[in-house]
Amino acid sequence: MVENKNDPQFVLKLNELEQNALQSKRLIDLYEVLDILSGTQDSEERINNIYQNILEVALENLAGKLEQKNLFALDNEEELYTLRALYEYAINHYSNNDFKGASELFFMLNVLVEDSTIRFSMQLHAIGAAEHISFDEFVEKFIDLDALKDDEGAIFMDRYKEGVQEFVNAKTKTLKELYRLYHNKE
After folding, report:
1. What is d(CA 62, CA 22) in angstroms, rounded to the nearest whole number?
2. Per residue of the chain (186 residues), what is the pLDDT tens digit?
3. Bridge partners, 143 (sequence order)
4. Cβ distance 67 to 102 under 8 Å?
5. How far apart are CA 21 and CA 145, in angstroms?
6. For residues 34 and 51, is the Cβ–Cβ distance under 8 A?
7. Helix (H) or strand (E) holding 14
8. Residue-by-residue DSSP string for 39-57
């Protein structure tokens, strides 16, 4: 896609797509632009601007869910992309060793998503961060990267190695503390 960067028609279409995405504030459109920009190795500033817009929309959607006391549904495309953005935001915190911020974000996602598989995944991530397990160690110890590679549509790290359920079951004290913190913030 890098070769398209010098094609005037491609640049025109990309600029139009970007403007429409920024105006519509639809996360799927913003992610499409982000993916294209990343593939063209465009300026970091432009990419960061799109990501910032994605995050702002996702946080607005999160505030709406919290206010309405509704859960995110994965079958709703905008809600799925909201979860993706919030998950990536939490992963960013985790990979930068912001264990407290990451665990709180993951736990909030756990509480706000309907899907039991994703809920479990968010619990696992929240526990890992709360236990100060480094992100790299977390991935190495718990995530089945081969299974994730085989699933091109995977958004969340929700394929696990053996023993993950036992690990979560052994961390009920950590989960109770996360529940307590979450309920005190409401």
Report:
1. 19
2. 445 666 788 888 988 999 999 999 999 999 999 988 888 776 889 899 999 999 999 999 999 998 998 999 999 999 999 999 999 999 999 999 999 999 999 999 999 999 999 999 999 999 999 999 999 999 999 999 988 888 877 889 999 999 999 999 999 899 888 888 777 765
3. 160
4. no
5. 32
6. yes
7. helix 8-24
8. HTT--HHHHHHHHHHHHHH
Q: How far is CA 21 from CA 24, 57, 131, 150, in A?
A: 5, 11, 39, 30
Measure the CA–CA gap between 62 and 84, rounded to whole angstroms.
Answer: 12
- Best CA proximity match to 148, nearest among 162, 136, 161, 158: 158
Rounded Cα distance between 170 and 156, Å, is: 23
For tokens 């309907």, what's the residue?
Answer: 114
Contacts of 101 (CB under 8 A, 6+ apart): 90, 93
Q: How many helices (H) and strands (E) does the chain have?
A: 10, 0
Q: Residue type at 143?
A: I
Phi and psi for 156 in degrees, rounded to 5? -110, 150
Give the span between the Cα atoms of 160 and 97, in whole angstroms: 22
Contact (Cβ atoms closer than 8 angstroms) between residue 93 and residue 100: no
